[in-house]
Amino acid sequence: MPKVRRSRKPPPEGWELIEPTIEELDAKMREHEIEPHEGKRKVEALWPIFKIHHQKSRYLYDLYYKRKAISKELYDYCLKEKIADANLIAKWKKDGYERLCCLRCIQVRDTNFGTNCICRVPRTKLDQIKIVECVHCGCRGCSG
């Protein structure tokens, strides 16, 4: 498989530390893109892709904000190259959105009644017997 084309500018110092993980997640993403989706609902075929996209963004977020293991230059490079989702990371920095699964779950225009997705409802407010999955990304609850 050909490597993903990046900009001509060489990556900053520390790229070799995160490259194996990023490449592994990219390989998983490619596997799920070509995986047959017979027998699944139309939206279920995209759920693994959303999950891997979330993992990649969360990995870089944790490295930069939580563990402080990568430099600002490397973090900015990853955002500029769209390795991670800058808008999703911006939401994670706000109170109440620390565990947000995807941006579609908070967009009210994508729902029938102009409200948030079901996965944003706290589990204490939901029926314990019924398993709830988000239609957009397959999340089973990303609120506190």
What's the quick description here?
The chain contains 4 helices and no strands. It is mainly alpha-helical.
Top keywords for this entry?
single chain; 144 residues; mainly alpha; globular
Please characterize this protein's 3D structure.
The chain has 144 residues and is mainly α. Helices cover 39% and strands 0% of the residues. It has 4 helices and no strands. Helix 1 runs antiparallel to helix 2. The N and C termini lie far apart (40 Å).
Helices, by number, come to: 4
Structural class: mainly alpha
Strand content: under 5%
**What is the CA-atom radius of gyration, in angstroms?**
17 Å
Global morphology: globular
Report the mean per-residue pLDDT as an integer.
88
Helix content: 25-40%
Distance between the termini: 40 Å
Q: Major beta sheet, specifics?
A: none
Question: Which stretches of 5+ consecutive residues score pLDDT under 50?
Answer: none
Compute the number of strand runs: 0
Order of helices and strands: HHHH
Task: Compile the SSE list and pairings.
Elements: H1 15-34, H2 47-66, H3 72-80, H4 86-92
